[in-house]
Amino acid sequence: xxxxxxxxxxxxxxxxxxWALLMLFWHxxxxxxxxxxxxxxxxxxxxxxxxxxxxxKHKTNHS
Length: 63
Fold this sequence. Notes:
Layout: H1 3-24, H2 31-61
Helix pairs in contact: 1-2
Transmembrane segments: 7-26, 32-53
Keywords: Membrane, Transmembrane, Transmembrane helix
């Protein structure tokens, strides 16, 4: 696996961990906070999907 892809995977795990902590400690009903969390969740999901697709593409190219 290329180093760049490994770096992105590690970064995704870090970002996902921060997201999980925010979800755990999120006790506010502020609309801005909810919008931020929705956007943050979407970014994480898209990032995760891109990483998975890149890994699959890399495996099929080098098998």
